[in-house]
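Q: For a teaching session next week I want to show students how multiple molecules come together into a single three-dimensional assembly. I've collected the sequence lines for a complex. Could you give me the predicted structure tokens for the whole thing so I can convert them for display?
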Amino acid sequence: MSSTASCVPAVGEEEISSIGRGLCVLLGVSVEDTQKDADYIVRKILNLRLFEDEAGRAWTKSVVDRDFEVLCVSQFTLQCVLKGNKPDFHSAMPAELAQPFYHSILENLRSSYKPELIKDGRFGAYMQVHIQNDGPVTIDLTSPMGPSDPRQLSKQEKQQQRKEKTRSKGPSESSREKGAARSRRDPNASSGADGDVSSDREP
Amino acid sequence: MSSTASCVPAVGEEEISSIGRGLCVLLGVSVEDTQKDADYIVRKILNLRLFEDEAGRAWTKSVVDRDFEVLCVSQFTLQCVLKGNKPDFHSAMPAELAQPFYHSILENLRSSYKPELIKDGRFGAYMQVHIQNDGPVTIDLTSPMGPSDPRQLSKQEKQQQRKEKTRSKGPSESSREKGAARSRRDPNASSGADGDVSSDREP
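A: Of course. Below is the structure for the complete assembly, covering every listed component.
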């Protein structure tokens, strides 16, 4: 996601929506994502301290603290796995499942913040997304590996999980922190087929 | 990086540079990055098939195939590690080292392609980067873990490395493929300090 001075997704000449200062979230849903991943991402979008305070001190205020806007755009290409120079998108959740999942994230954002400050693009549409990246500031946010399979957790990751639990103090943190985890997908993992499995999806 | 219809970084009213169709690359350099990582990233930027061919078939042509432009912008915030809701940037290469590293990547891109089609922002400057993300198409590109510490390689990653070596056929691939690897940094790893170690860098 990026810190924006403005962001406007458009289909042809039609502007779908627009925000001013805030966050443009390009959201790629994985086949393995669950409600817990969605909750984690919503919490981080709203609570990460990516903005300056009124005195200009950087990295002190969240989008919620500043009353800024959030624009979400579905972006399955973020789930790309490289097969040599070929992008493969089989790790992305299929559109018929990703669409309700994406909309549930939007609803979660709206119910956790001010609904009128949460905007979105048009799921699956071919769009021109005009982003004025302010800074620029771009953060790569992935929901962390979950406790469902503790054998896969490295010592460092376990420590980090404990730290995150200990340090969480945000307004919408306490009740959800316990479940905030999922299996981190291996970005090098094969999507299971040996032959030509590059996606036939259009952007 | 994003597929662009246009991208224009600006400092105040001054437009630093601009591209039309092509790739906007937001480049975050890690403290652990080496020449091999740089070579890998350059090769993937130039050779990934992210564009359609003349018949409109998606994911068939690279930026080089289409004679499109590349705009690189330094973006240390991509090396963010979360400490709860606090972004920490100690994993980013310090600016005095990252600047020559970033410029060597630009030179590598220029010498591997047409120099006049490689543009850049202004290292370290506070900019407004106007990106028209076409699609949108955004790819999260990380140089893979290197063979320097094979104990850290999972079986899947080793297989993937072998596959990438076998499948590489791009014009600028053969000589560099052997060295294309580095240690994947653990995004949850601590930056080594226990107290308040959030970055004091401005965007």
